[in-house]
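Render this sequence as a predicted structure.
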Amino acid sequence: MDIPLSTPILLDGATGTQLQKRGMPRGVCTETWVLEHPEVLLELQRSYVDAGSQVLIAPTFGANRVALSRHGVADQTEEYNKRLVALSRQAADGKALVAADLSPTGLFIPPFGETPFQELVDIYTQQARACQEAGVDLFVLETTMTMPEARAAVLAVKSVSDRPVWVTFTCDENGRTLSGTDVLAAMIIMQGMGVSAFGLNCSTGPEAMLEQLERLTPYAAVPLIAKPNAGLPSTEDGKTVYHCPPEEFASYVDRMAAAGVRIFGGCCGTGPEHIAALKAAVERVDFSRFPAPEQDPDVIPCASEQEARFITPDVDVGEVIECTPDLLEDILDTEEHCQGALKIAILEQDDVDIFAENQYAVKDALCLYSDVPELLEGALRAYQGRAFWDGTVELEPEFLQEMSSKYGLVLL
């Protein structure tokens, strides 16, 4: 699903806060409550379609087996996802597309947690397969906060579906996620892995979100998504209240369009009235006025797990670092003295394991070096950034292109 730069797309608004307004108690399993009260979701999503939504996001946000296990229904993961998607398809009634919604699991890979990266991939694969079988039109990964979860989800979806994948991160006013990743780095990694659109959701109102989106504009190779809250909430009489009315919410559309946003929607606190206001504002914008930003071929975006890094075609990678038990110290020492990039050799399976344990320490642009395709792929799978290949070892071009498409490997 390529998105022409002259064609805006309207998402829906909030689901959780709107369900609470319609009687869903706090603290319950949203997915179970929706299945027990399907008429409430149908009414809400039909109102979004009437307001102009072209994409309904199915209420599968917490329908991975990790989240469902907290409510004792992990054994119903496939059934829940299929039933929830079916409800949204019923609400759409052929008037809107339906997107599967994949959310954070709350799990962390070593050394900050105990969940192997492959387990994250398996968790998302189970959910993605069920949604694919239920007939979704696309996948949306939203409220994303860590690179391992984002990468695992993208790999999972692409292993079971050829549907488009859209990704939105949530960040603070400085553009950092709770795990410390700069959203610019996140975009570089995600678009390298072939997502069809990237953006931000939740956390902030439209004004603060616009500031971060404008940071992404010069490097965006895909359409941007804006799905802000209706402002920052406050608590009044024990209830959470959002203070950005529809007209103010929609007043940022023109500036967001200039920043490259082509997919508009609302997160917490928004409702059908906000989507109707977005629709009216979008219809007043001539999107053809905003050309795609020109990309400088001599500025090549890479990224570590947390930082955006930019190299040139003639980047100096210095001496090769071997994967010894001292890899962590070698990475820190090299980055203290290097000229912007480091190169790590992956020559045997033990190297992949050592690299996986220490890759989090990489902050600069990373060149991976191996003459064994399986080992290079193992290192790319473990690395939570976007690495580059300098061509000093010959590997089959078809294999390197596959690594570029699957993991975002930059080929110099």
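Summary. The first strand starts at residue 9 and ends at 10. The chain has a mean pLDDT of 94.
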